Amino acid sequence: RNMSSAGPEGRKKMRECEGLIDSLVYYIQGAIADHEPNDKATENCVCILHNLSYQLEIELPESYAQSIYMQRRNISNNDKTPGCFGTRSRKVKEKQQDTPLPEEKSNPKGVESLWHSTLIRIYLSLIAKSTRNYTQEASLGALQNLTAGTGPMPLAVARTVVQKANGLPSIRAMLHVSHPAVRKTAVSLLRNLSRNPSLQNDIAREVLPDLVSILPECVPGSDIACETTASICYTLFNLTQSSSHNARLLLSAHGLPKVIAISMNDSNMFSKASRAASVLLYSLWSHTDLHSAYKK
């Protein structure tokens, strides 16, 4: 667990170590099957996998990434579509949104397991069943790492979490735990998921009222609470920017007075949360059909 946080070179060596990732996954699966999601070894295993999933999209070798993710369906040779770890241009991103996702392997080995739906479901199961804060935080954090990029892998993971594995109820429950680091990581994961336009309505329906409910009445005092507040505002921004319906949901959940109060604190110490709230307000005002409702 300590070695897995030793930086890019350490992560690379551990990902390449034959059988290591498979053994960690195997152990966690056994712990869940035996109804032992709270043992210390499971926590250690999940924390290692969390660290090994950090910056995965960037750090995998280009040739390896392309061999897994090169889109093979109905794409002509002169399209020159890169793997998901290649060019980050807007045109490429749009193309990746349009192309079908590659089918995952039924029997993944080694590093392939890190983004496979089997492990995604394991993380969601641990979030739901474990009562250890570090295990919950590491499971949420691993999913946050895997959904942080812009290519087919993060897109596929996000769809699996929201649509295939029905993970939103488990993540929503973590918004209301008392442990601030767990809550912060849950919000950061939702922020990543909410960047995907095809998932925004599902996320808004499931968790938007909960996000509003945990917004403070004013800018909070601690750094971690301030960061969490900023992340909530940016998540709400993603969910409401293109949807008047979702903006109305925020309004009916009594979110507007909270966002206004947070935006009005211009202290440097709390500027991150205030700036995020201001960005959200500016976006909400763009829904002209809601102006009269806002004024009321």
UniProtKB/TrEMBL annotation:
Gene3D superfamilies hit by this protein: Leucine-rich Repeat Variant (1.25.10.10)
Domain of life assignment: Eukaryota
Membrane-spanning residues: none
Keyword presence, Repeat: yes
Repeat as UniProt keyword: yes
GO cellular component, one term: plasma membrane
Subcellular localization: Cell junction
Keywords: Cell adhesion, Cell junction, Repeat
Principal location: other
Sequence segments annotated as region (Disordered): 79-109
GO annotation terms (biological process): cell-cell adhesion; desmosome organization; heart development; intermediate filament bundle assembly; protein localization to plasma membrane
Biased composition (Basic and acidic residues): 94-107
Family label: Belongs to the beta-catenin family.
This protein's name: PKP2 protein
